[in-house]
Amino acid sequence: MKMLRKVCLTLLAGMFLAVPFASADETELVIDGSTTVGPISKAFAEYFMEENPGVNVTVSESGSGNGIKSLINGACDIGQASRWMKEGEFKAAVENGVFPVAHVVGLDGLAPVVHPANPVGNLTLDEIRDIYAGEIRNWNEVGGPNMGIVKVSRDTNSGTYGVWQDVVMRGKDISADAEYVGSNGAIRARVQNTRGAIGYVGLGFVDRTVKGVSVEGIEPTPVNTATGRYPIARPLYMFTNGYPELGSALHRFVTIHMTPVGQSLVESIGFVPQTQY
After folding, report:
1. Chain centroid, CA 236 distance in Å
2. pLDDT band at residue 2 using 50, 70 and 90 as cut-offs
């Protein structure tokens, strides 16, 4: 978590360095990318269009990788991502005349989720890794019932998948029998209807239809994420091409998270606003 704080503060400070200014159509803003950041963008869009009736904001959720590609190709004004840009993406952006600037709109924890009837309430990072690697195949191996484990993962283009690989899998591959789905909502739907399933979602997608599993004895909650106690956490980004022209519609939009209204919206969705760092 200390690393996340340092990254966030560095990025916020770096916004004001000598970076090219981005300009956008003042009547339309196009956003694409992460399904995790999507609910934040949609909440911001609804608020922003009420405050700025002359500007239309459209939000698509094609995954972090696709959102970054859209930004690089000039197909969107904001590429929303639940992970940092990869080295190859930065290279492609610069080669295409795009200068990515990151706006950290909040923090998120990745919560392992199981069916509400599953009695397992806590797992270690090693146990979760071994479950997804196929080395633990039955819930009775981790204190649960005699029931096979159904592993559900995000698709490989997802930023959530990338964070899971880095923090949880730590060099091990997810086993070939895992199921892959395209969104946090799809994981939640599969888990809530499958007694033996386990998946992982952003905090904003944990509700009463699934059970969030503690990791190393720490519950996946916004408070535990904000204080650095919860071990699977990441910043949430909106990337623009250059720092937006001050006062422009794009600038006003990507700074909503710095306002009391924006911070309240982030928190109401279940994520961690910057005020809780």
Report:
1. 5
2. very low
Do the beta carbons of residue 174 and residue 209 sit within 8 Å? no
Cα–Cα distance for residue pair 198/221, rounded to 1 Å: 18
Q: Given this model, what pLDDT does residue 276 score?
A: 60
Kindly tell me the number of DSSP H helices and DSSP E strands found in the chain.
10, 13
C-alpha distance from residue 118 to each of 59, 148, 151, 188, 271 (Å): 35, 12, 14, 14, 25
In this structure, the strands spanning 28-33 and 56-59 are: parallel
- Nearest-5° angle of CA 145, CA 126, CA 117? 25
Give the count of beta carbons closer than 10 Å to the beta carbon of residue 75: 14
- pLDDT tens across 231-263, in order? 999 999 999 999 999 999 999 999 999 999 999
What contacts 21, CB < 8 A, 6 or more positions away? 242, 243, 244, 245, 246
87 burial level (CB within 10 Å; 0-12, 13-18, 19+) = exposed
Q: Could you give the domains of the chain?
A: 2-107+235-276 (3.40.190.10), 108-226 (3.40.190.10)
Q: Concatenate the DSSP letters of all residues of 125-165 into one string.
A: HHHHHHHHTTS--BGGGGTS-S-B-EEEEE-TT-HHHHHHI
Ramachandran bin of 216, using left for φ above 0, alpha for ψ from -120 to 50, beta for the remaining angles = left
Instruction: Give the model confidence (pLDDT) of 73-84 as tens digits.
Output: 999 999 999 999
Name the amino acid, one letter, at 89.
E
pTM: 0.79
CB contact at 8 A, 187 and 154: yes
